[in-house]
Inverse folding.
């Protein structure tokens, strides 16, 4: 009798384990896993990515997000993305820098955000939740919504008020024009021995140079899409840049990482850089850090390239596509944007989030450094994308010209060579 009881008990336990196992299997199958590719390093938003993923998964336990950092900024991510697409295993969601958005629109197979209008009853309200004009950064020339903007930044002038005082400059009156900037940089170099100015440079884009050029009335590509990099306005920009580097020796010719380290170490008086780095710089600077507006060229209007990226869906599976769309909606919600802005320095894209006490109102009230970025948002223009299948190669042409100029090559000759190369690549 006892053995029968034991056998019955064992059988029941076995059946319970089997049932639980099947339940677990079904539950596991219901969890959708997606990959998210981004460029947010430890010093630029990695914490925000981690917090965003954790919060999204808390709200959506049926979706697992694997975030993967891509080295090499937007160019490095794009190279890796092309390889992954060719191999048939792209990430579900990836950041694409605004300067590469046309390339992605035309050359990379992706799921249109506009497609979700048919299944999401809140689609129209979602697009209307952005600050006016922002959705356009993810639209093609016909107005079709292909991607969703995540981040926007503008360049600002960071400066070391302690070095200003040591050089006899007024820290309450930062330079407003490029002539004033050059003079202040020379003064800092002469009076303190430290470099006066750093300008953000990247090995694969011309984001900050675009702001310098267009603020002077020039174009990298004019409104008709034609290269204009040998025009007098562009030549003037690079001649001044070269003079500060070689003639004045007030601007170091080093990598951007080295410039950032020098500035945060108190060895660089001023630094023109993205507002997205504000959190990192303010956390590490051991001096009186202040911010001011991007310098103007006389009385010409500022035109500042809007840095940042849009989120594209590259998943091929419909279930993953839907999960990716939900993830994107969270990242661009008021809650998602709050997490993002607090750990970076990017500007919020959701309407009302900066004035809402539940989200970012206190942050902006308590952080005067952000004022320079917010005040310049009306001057933001689209970050230039080079069109066509050779757009990525075209981007490098002006990068190489800049490097040659800062190492002493005659400006006019370097830019005329770049003009010829761009005309061949883009025709």
């Amino acid at each position: 009798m006892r053995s029968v009881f034991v056998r019955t008990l064992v059988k029941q336990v076995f059946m319970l384990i089997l049932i639980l196992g099947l339940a677990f299997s079904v539950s596991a199958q219901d969890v959708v896993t997606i990959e998210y590719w981004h460029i947010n390093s430890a010093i630029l938003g990695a914490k925000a990515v981690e917090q965003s993923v954790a919060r999204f998964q808390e709200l959506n336990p049926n979706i697992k997000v694997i975030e993967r950092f891509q080295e090499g900024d937007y160019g490095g991510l794009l190279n890796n993305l092309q390889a992954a697409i060719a191999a048939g295993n792209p990430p579900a969601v990836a950041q694409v820098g605004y300067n590469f958005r046309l390339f992605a629109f035309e050359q990379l197979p992706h799921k249109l955000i506009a497609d979700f209008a048919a299944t999401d009853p809140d689609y129209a309200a979602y697009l209307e939740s952005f600050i006016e004009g922002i959705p356009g950064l993810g639209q093609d020339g016909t107005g079709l919504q292909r991607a969703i903007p995540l981040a926007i930044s503008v360049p600002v002038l960071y400066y070391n008020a302690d070095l200003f005082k040591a050089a006899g400059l007024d820290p309450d009156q930062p330079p407003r024009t490029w002539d004033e900037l050059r003079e202040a940089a020379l003064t800092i170099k002469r009076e303190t021995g430290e470099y006066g100015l750093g300008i953000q440079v990247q090995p694969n884009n011309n984001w900050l140079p675009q702001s310098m050029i267009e603020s002077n009335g020039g174009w990298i590509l004019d409104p008709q899409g034609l290269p204009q990099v040998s025009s007098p306005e562009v030549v003037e920009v690079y001649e001044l840049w070269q003079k500060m580097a070689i003639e004045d020796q007030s601007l170091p010719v080093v990598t951007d990482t080295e410039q950032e380290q020098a500035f945060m170490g108190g060895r660089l008086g001023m630094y023109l850089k993205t507002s997205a780095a504000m959190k990192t710089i303010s956390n590490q600077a051991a001096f009186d850090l202040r911010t001011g507006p991007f310098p103007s060229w006389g009385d010409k209007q500022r035109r500042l390239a809007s840095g940042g990226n849009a989120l594209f869906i590259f998943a091929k599976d419909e279930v993953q596509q839907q999960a990716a769309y939900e993830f994107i909606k969270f990242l661009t919600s008021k809650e998602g944007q709050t997490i993002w802005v607090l750990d970076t320095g990017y500007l919020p894209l959701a309407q009302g989030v900066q004035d809402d006490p539940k989200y970012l109102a206190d942050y902006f009230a308590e952080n005067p450094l952000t004022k320079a970025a917010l005040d310049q948002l009306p001057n933001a223009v689209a970050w230039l994308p080079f069109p066509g299948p050779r757009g990525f190669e075209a981007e490098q042409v002006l990068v190489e010209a800049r490097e040659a100029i800062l190492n002493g090559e005659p400006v006019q000759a370097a830019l005329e060579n770049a003009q010829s190369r761009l005309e061949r690549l883009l025709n």
